[in-house]
Amino acid sequence: MSKERPILLVEDNPDDEALALHAFSKNRIGNQVIVAHDGVEALDYLFGTGVFSGCTPELPAVVLLDLKLPRIDGLEVLRRIRAESRTTLLPVVILTTSREILDLQQAYNLGANSYVRKPVDFERFQHLVGVLGEYWLNINESVEASTNNGY
């Protein structure tokens, strides 16, 4: 069996980051979680630039992407992910507190695979992370996983 691919969590709020990491642990999601604190860090990781220059980091199984990020916002990160052949099919889940209909529409227009609003309550957030983890890591068939399994 191949090594589990990491999860890329793009989150600038330290409290939400801590909640997400705790929820992954509580749900026994054992994949490594790479945390990017803004859009630039996320793109650097995905494309091997900045502090990741000179290496080609492993693509994550899924990107959990906040929208309201410093330096480069989540919608622009999504736009750049979809523009590159290496990442165009990478599963991207928008995980945000935004209730703006324009954000929802733009995210789907740019190719988001899912748009999920973060619950305020920890128990609901923990359940949500468990459902997301189960679906994107165990149920969903990705192109890379299918290619690696000889399909």
From TrEMBL:
Q: Which domain of life is it from?
A: Bacteria
Under the heading Pfam families, the entry gives:
Response_reg
CDD domains found in the cross-reference section: REC_Rcp-like
Signal peptide as annotated in the record: none
Instruction: Tell me the InterPro entries matching this sequence.
Output: CheY-like_superfamily (IPR011006), Sig_transdc_resp-reg_receiver (IPR001789), TCS_response_regulator (IPR052893)
Keyword Phosphoprotein appears in the UniProt entry: yes
Q: Which GO terms describe its biological process?
A: phosphorelay signal transduction system
Which keywords are on file for this protein? Phosphoprotein
Tell me which residues bear 4-aspartylphosphate: D66
Residue limits of the Response regulatory domain? 6-133
PANTHER family associated with the record: RESPONSE REGULATOR RCP1-RELATED (PTHR44520), TWO-COMPONENT SYSTEM REGULATORY PROTEIN (PTHR44520:SF1)
Q: What is this protein called?
A: Response regulatory domain-containing protein
| Natural source organism | Thauera terpenica 58Eu
